[in-house]
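Please predict the structure of the following assembly.
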Amino acid sequence: MKTLQMTSSDRTTFLTSRFFGRLPCSTVDAILEDARLSTFKEHDILFHQGDSIVDVFFVLSGLIRLYRVGKDGRQADVAVFSKGEMFADNTMYLGRATASAEAAEASVIARFDSAKLRQLAAADPDVAQAFIEHLCHRGKMTEDLLAQDRLLTATQRVASYILSHCPNGTATSFSFRLPFQKSVLAGKLGLAPEALSRAFSTLRRSGVIVKGRIIEIHDRLALERF
Amino acid sequence: MKTLQMTSSDRTTFLTSRFFGRLPCSTVDAILEDARLSTFKEHDILFHQGDSIVDVFFVLSGLIRLYRVGKDGRQADVAVFSKGEMFADNTMYLGRATASAEAAEASVIARFDSAKLRQLAAADPDVAQAFIEHLCHRGKMTEDLLAQDRLLTATQRVASYILSHCPNGTATSFSFRLPFQKSVLAGKLGLAPEALSRAFSTLRRSGVIVKGRIIEIHDRLALERF
DNA sequence: CGATCGCTTGAGTAGGATCAACAAGAGTGG
DNA sequence: CCACTCTTGTTGATCCTACTCAAGCGATCG
């Protein structure tokens, strides 16, 4: 972990992010005032479950995996954050981290003092509003994950993930690049890496071709049938 | 479903609830101004997944089950709310219900206009603050569920549920009454009713005695070992 | 060129879902 | 008060999914 200076491209990452994008420029600048940047390499730990955190985090680049640890040491991902996403926001009010955070690849992270942000939210209705919407969105994401876990099989979860990455049009065939390692995707979907691999194997019969991180879909309807 | 009048005991339910309890009395009264009460009997549906909801709900008595429905019609609970809890709050900002809601027993529900509440949150920092804390708490709850699903076996989940209902002291033996039907608990824990039954069966060997809705624990340490 | 890493594939296993039968209450109505 | 039914929960048997462990394969890197 190493501290560094904010670039202008970092600034646009902030300004176009879901959270900061809704706020007036001046407010954002006031917040960015005391942002502290740091880099992490793959497998670096940002904090541990139960740590008392005094910061809110924001991904400028890379990928952060949020996970809980069971008594036997097994890990379960509860969320994965990439460029432009904010996390550990709930520690702002809960005081302690509800999960551990690890860089799933080399990452640049910005950090804000949570007390100051909380103060700002109390003073500026825009900020409060942004927080509320952000939390609603986060809540829906976790609810989605939970429902997927409980309702879908491994193959269905993967199919649904692929479909969520397809353009809205009616094109029956398209392709995209996985934004991270397959093992990370497996974690995010609540699967062992082997199960993900087998799911891809099954989907191959339905016109899904996987080459490295490139996913090609040739028959979208077949996917939707799962 | 039937509308009715608010009683003074309803009022104290509001005032002592997690959400309204943090707000000054005058604010609460202003909100309660246009609360609409209605009763539901068991299995009544309050709304369906995807409905566009213009209300925020509050449980005055009874039990509401929030669930998603899979393509095959199977249901998966994402939350269960009892007296004093607010729900469907995220529809305030998302517009549509992310899940269906059903009364798991006869219930009395209060309803508020979400537009008005949203307005109030924008104007009154206290209300915004209360919403933020409420959403943080809700987020943690769902995260807990997700982590439990991914890390614990059926028996462990039940043991953990029981322990979460035990007094903080060091008493090794205690008992409590299930606040709802076992089938509801099964749903909440993401289990088939049969699996819950078998889990209780397993726990019997560790000093857990179940008589109807009464749970007796005789060896707390044995439970914690799971 | 070995070595490591990320992924795939195979075989065995465990946990829980499903289906079905059954027991124990709780109402209901005569 | 008793028979009847409906509901709720338990238990048994079977099956299926996904986990675990282990081996193999290809790519990348020193």
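Strands of chain B lie at 2-4, 36-40, 45-47, 55-69, 75-82, 86-87, 100-113, 174-177, 208-211, 214-217. The mean pLDDT of chain B is 92.
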